[in-house]
Amino acid sequence: MLNSPQIRQQGSTMPFGNTHNQMKMKYTSEQEYPDLSKHNNHMAKILTPAMYERLRSKQTPSGFTLDDVIQTGVDNPGHPFIMTVGCVAGDEETYEVFKELLDPVIEDRHGGYKPSDKHKTDLNPSNLKGGDDLDSNYVLSSRVRTGRSVRGFCLPPHCSRGERRAVEKLSIEALASLSGDLKGKYYALKNMTEAEQQQLIDDHFLFDKPVSPLLLASGMGRDWPDARGIWHNDNKTFLVWVNEEDHLRVISMQKGGNMKEVFDRFCTGLTKIETLFKERSHAFMWNEHLGYVLTCPSNLGTGLRAGVHVKLPNMSKHAKFEEVLKKLRLQKRGTGGVDTAAVGGVFDISNADRLGFSEVELVQMVVDGVKLLVEMEKKLEKGQSIDDIMPAQK
Amino acid sequence: MAKNCHNDLKMKYSVDEEFPDLSLHNNHMAKVLNKEIYGKLRGKSTPSGFTLDDVIQTGVDNPGHPFIMTVGCVAGDEESYEFFKDLLDPIISDRHGGYKPTDKHKTDLNFENLKGGDDLDPNYVLSSRVRTGRSIKGFTLPPHNSRGERRGIEKLSIEALSSLEGEFKGKYYPLSGMTDAEQEQLINDHFLFDKPVSPLLTCAGMARDWPDGRGIWHNDNKTFLVWVNEEDHLRVISMQLGGNMKEVFRRFCVGLQKIEEIFKKHNHGFMWNEHLGYILTCPSNLGTGLRGGVHVKLPKLSTHAKFEEILTRLRLQKRGTGGVDTASVGGVFDISNADRLGSSEVAQVQLVVDGVKLMVEMEKKLEKGESIDGMIPAQK
């Protein structure tokens, strides 16, 4: 949800959190409680004065506080297109220490996911059925991304320069040992040449200093561009962002509709990287309730967004387009990412869920759903009805 | 161990691992900070919990500025200037013309000590303005204060300001509850301040919880204005069209002192000490925190080869009429005192009054095609 570097908002950069003020405990909970009267995000829906009172004196072992968790949601009342989360984690323990706030936020955001639920991880690409035959006259490109947090370090809203550099160092080591079609190179943001920068922009690989106030208000832009970088394989089909919104963002992509191959590479690469990190005694943050632990509660579970850029000029104008997407558990975005509108009838269609379904299940939904949407598009082109192929709720 | 920056894991890393990369930086903090100072100070925090990394974050995040040499650090509370003196004293010295840790600062808000200033030619001097900031003892500063503290400051400010009378009688407009009509009016009067967009400010944490606890007060005459909880607890501004700086300064001193008395009665005087004068968020505003200036038409003088030199000798600085980050428009410049610390309010406004008077004379000479070589001032 907060992952798009393409969020461009008018106006300001935003402050980061400085919420470790000892004097605040001299004030009552009521005096300190944020004004959320104009707010519309998950945090604002859930937080109450009583909850604030119970949690405000707590902190995680690394010193992350409730005010740190919620600052971005206080500073950003709402968003025109999307229901934002309005809170972040500063470390793995945040989800435990502040569960009273975060469990209901997670439940609200992830379709009723309960504190007692277990999340299933499945990164075995041979469990995916089909996906290699999406019509490339319609499906222009396919992509799967996720995030990973490295255990033993605080998360981007809270990590120090020393921690961030250590994450970078570990990442460089791990990625440098990849071989075959995953062999690649790391480009540190801080000493990129102009030529390298231009190439990465042309390839649509370069991420820039966040401009979104959603990200900046939580402290993720601190010390930019120190210890941030981009790694990609020589084939330009596998890409890793280091220290942007999460410790790692892993992306597999290619032109056309062969989602199977994209997912295959995704799983293989990810599993290799995880092994390399484990060998260095820094596994990925994961637990059986929340799956992979990431900075934003919206990315828990698989942290996976699998999607295609697909031409649906007729389908997208159909009265039931939104309903079809909902039934298929898919969401649409413009081709510029989460904050954009579609251009020329081309949409970014991806899985809506993150938590409570496995990676294979989510990609399966995209594969099956997009296949159906393309069939519908073809029917509408021929002036035929699509009423008889409307899907059931998945 | 005292609570540290806010990320207690960072002390596991060495100084080398944590020291910021300042290789592309050009601000006062980057000039002064080194690994030795960093190593000495990184384990400290003020009683309210402000740490070295908090002090320098804005300077790390903002390597430089095209027009000005930025300070690159802020205080989070009164104690910052003491706890982090190893960093801040050299910065203060660098920024304030060699001001030493042992120097004493003189405060003089007696407007009667100003000579002249009531006759700047309004054909050239379009408007006159004096501003300063004040911090309220017992609260931490805008980079660090909590919502409760900020609201406490606002509450006290409203009480103090609403008890003003006569030429100072006025009204408070909280940013949170402003109507569209009020907002429009305040914009038209050029009174409204908006959420900071400058990364210099936002990276220091000053815009948190916006617009909670922020507001604008001004008198009915619209000549005396107070900003609450923007970059400092209070910003106090006296202004009017034309060149009567004397009157502007009189109102400034009288109003400021009235406000200070009321805060003192509530046991919350202004932060001040005999070394640093008035304590403000940015080290550049220590001392008087005063910027006295005019908008003045100098189309000829401003293109003269010696314009910059004259300003330097007069201890003045120029800005565009949009403020610190802007360029001048139509030959109209914002001319104000360059100094803040080490000279009094009266002395600084005197420099503006005398200096602007001279520059207007120079402008008139140049208009007539005459030379100004005989008028170049000595270094003040």
TrEMBL record, chain A:
| Alphabetical list of InterPro entries matching this protein | ATP-guanido_PTrfase, ATP-guanido_PTrfase_AS, ATP-guanido_PTrfase_cat, ATP-guanido_PTrfase_N, ATP-guanido_PTrfase_N_sf, Gln_synth/guanido_kin_cat_dom
Q: Which SUPFAM superfamilies match?
A: Glutamine synthetase/guanido kinase, Guanido kinase N-terminal domain
**Superkingdom of origin:** Eukaryota
- One Gene Ontology cellular component annotation held by this UniProt entry: extracellular space
Q: Where is the Phosphagen kinase C-terminal domain?
A: 138-380
* Keyword rRNA-binding found: no
Q: Which GO biological process annotations does it have?
A: phosphocreatine biosynthetic process
* EC number of this enzyme: 2.7.3.2
Name the residue ranges with Basic and acidic residues bias.
Answer: 109-122
Q: Which Pfam families does the record associate with it?
A: ATP-gua_Ptrans, ATP-gua_PtransN
Q: Where does ATP bind?
A: 141-145, 204, 249, 305-309, 333-338
> Which residues does the UniProt record annotate as the domain Phosphagen kinase N-terminal?
24-111
Reactions performed catalytically:
creatine + ATP = N-phosphocreatine + ADP + H(+)
Q: Which family does it belong to?
A: Belongs to the ATP:guanido phosphotransferase family.
Question: Under what name is this protein listed?
Answer: creatine kinase
Origin species = Perca flavescens (American yellow perch)
Automatic annotation (TrEMBL), chain B:
Q: Which InterPro entries match?
A: ATP-guanido_PTrfase (IPR000749), ATP-guanido_PTrfase_AS (IPR022415), ATP-guanido_PTrfase_cat (IPR022414), ATP-guanido_PTrfase_N (IPR022413), ATP-guanido_PTrfase_N_sf (IPR036802), Gln_synth/guanido_kin_cat_dom (IPR014746)
Q: Which family does it belong to?
A: Belongs to the ATP:guanido phosphotransferase family.
Q: Where is the Phosphagen kinase C-terminal domain?
A: 124-366
Q: Please indicate if the UniProt record lists Lipoprotein as a keyword.
A: no
Query: Which region is the signal sequence?
Result: none
Asked if Kinase is a keyword of the record, the answer is: yes
A Pfam family (short name) is ATP-gua_PtransN
Q: What is this protein called?
A: creatine kinase
- A Gene Ontology biological process annotation? phosphocreatine biosynthetic process
**GO MF terms, alphabetically ordered:** ATP binding; creatine kinase activity
Record-annotated Phosphagen kinase N-terminal domain positions:
10-97
